[in-house]
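Q: I'm a student working through a structural biology exercise. My instructor gave each of us a protein and asked us to get a predicted structure, then write a short paragraph describing it. Mine is ABC transporter ATP-binding protein. I'm not confident about reading structure output yet, so if you can add a plain explanation after the tokens, that would really help. Here is the sequence I was given:
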Amino acid sequence: MSGEPRSERLPIAGPAAVRRALLDLVRGDVHVLAAMLALTAAAALAAAAMPRLLGMIVDDFQEGAGASRIDLLATVAIGFGIAHLLLTRFAGLAGSRLGERALYRLRGGFVARALALPTHVVERADAGDLTTRNSTDIALVGQALREAAPDFFVATIRIGVLLAAVLLLDPLLGLCVLCGLPLHWVVTRWYLRRAPGDYLAERAAASEVSEVLSAGVEGAKTIEALRMQEQRMDLVARTIAASHRARRRTLFLRTVLFVVVDVGHALPVATTLLLGGYLYSAGGIGLGTAVAGSLYAWQLADPVDQVLMRVEQVQSSLASLARIEGVGEAAVPEPASTGLDGAPDGKGFVAAGVHYAYDGGPDVLGGVDLTVRPGEWLAIVGPSGAGKSTLGKLLAGLEAPTKGTITVQGRQVSALPAHERRRYVLMVTQEHHVFLGTVRDNLAMADPDAGDDAMLAALAAVDAHWIGDLPHGLATELGAGATHLDPGQAQQLALARVVLADPQTVVLDEATALLDPVTARRAERSMAAVLQGRTVVAIAHRLHTAHDADRVAIMERGRIVEIGEHHALVAAGGPYAGLWRSWHGA
Ligand SMILES: Nc1ncnc2c1ncn2[C@@H]1O[C@H](COP(=O)(O)OP(=O)(O)OP(=O)(O)O)[C@@H](O)[C@H]1O
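A: Happy to help. First, here is the predicted structure for ABC transporter ATP-binding protein. I'll explain a few features afterward.
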């Protein structure tokens, strides 16, 4: 492929799609969600019962109640304490289970959406974009689903129950407990508005410092030779100063947030104590009520801290979820079955008036008409960038023409569902990926119904006799940390997949170009076995492939300018004859 493709970002889902995605993630586990919420509410109620009981103990003690009554109340309080611990643990388990299962769905969904991306979208997407969404974004959402979101919900429920408990205890004391919340609300909003930008700026400034320093170390000799020490020192000083400024900004955010949050925690406790003391001395409430109210105010600090701590994590994970869901917006759904069974109709592939442009760019195919006859070996040759590989991808149905049609059995090839399309055509390229899993898993992709005998026969057909040396045969695990296949074996595995898929036509894009000579010869033998009896469209980057073909099509600037049999074309003295002569150095 020639030319530098423009890089683009994948889409990002909108808020409505993110809400739908969140619902989908928990939809299958509504009962676990309900159990988590119920257990959390029960745990919060148990926790809320303790201050009330302590207040009762204080009142009873003051009124001179007997030891047995105090012992009973203390035992009940301990019982509630134990219940709180147990319920919190089970709520935590339910939350983790919910999170783990949601993460499992999220990962599965992401893989499905990524696999449904058209090749040109993957090729054009910023190289790191898809990888970051698959790694960092999924990790962030995973962490939020497993920890932050359950903690956030648990803390929110605890706050609600505590507030209800203190308002029921005494509405005036309840108002005192509430007085810290507006402070938390205002400072958190202030912090969240500034934090993302300032933290990003801090990280960017830190990377800039390390880049400038390492560039200085790497280029030390040049700097010395050109006597640029002072300029470099200036640059280093400026980047460090910028980093210092960025750090001060985030430090300022933290100092304001932490101080206000601490004040927000202390204020309700102080005001409840003051008002409780006043009301008690004025005879408005009992001492037990004042004690219980202060304990509620004190208990509130922990869940409020949790909410503040988790809210940022939940927010940034929602941004990550929007990026993960966005991948689905560029995906193309699998077409519906057409009922075609792969039986040949004698017409082969027919390309009529085919145009193609990559993502709104100029046409790289400008009106290709071509019939690939059943059983023939057609080589496509031409200068770099002429559009050979693009035409190959279109013939294999991996992309649809922007104008015109490519049909087999009267149906547009790209519109056939994958399992039907591979009965007609498969593209074989230079990339032979070995997937993590067993040899059997790697082969079953081509034909999920194939039995072991068919798989072994396919491997034998491509000379992959090494299967007999593997410790567990077809059940041998392949990939990192397991059995490693060399490039030649990886190619044979890919070719065995072609044998299993058994397509009528193979589009071959320079399949042996990246292999060393010995492996390439082995691969060519395996290839010959695979191609036997099939229609072959060979994207030929070397002309000897063309010499052996039944017909040769010559492409220039997105069009087929000549087509015919090798000797006839050489004799005709046209573009192919020119290529042939220059290849022979004549
Ligand atoms: N993914 C892509 N995005 C944008 N443009 C592309 C992409 N792939 C190919 N092109 C452009 O399409 C044109 C045809 O490329 P193509 O790879 O089909 O040519 P080719 O004849 O196979 O070349 P080569 O022999 O160098 O592989 C070129 O101008 C190329 O830059």
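A: Here are two points you could use in your paragraph. The mean pLDDT is 86. The longest strand covers residues 363-372. It's a good idea to check both against the output above yourself.
Q: Great, thank you!
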